[in-house]
Amino acid sequence: MRLHPYRDRGAMCFDTPVTSNDDKRVVSATREIPAPAARIFELIADPAHQPRWDGNDNLAEASPGQRVRAVGDVFTMTLTYDGVVRENHVVEFEEGRRIAWRPAEPGQKPPGHLWRWELEPVDSSSTRVTHTYDWTELTDENRYRRAQETTPDKLRSSLDRLAALAEG
Question: pLDDT tens, 117-134?
Answer without folding.
Answer: 999 999 999 999 999 999
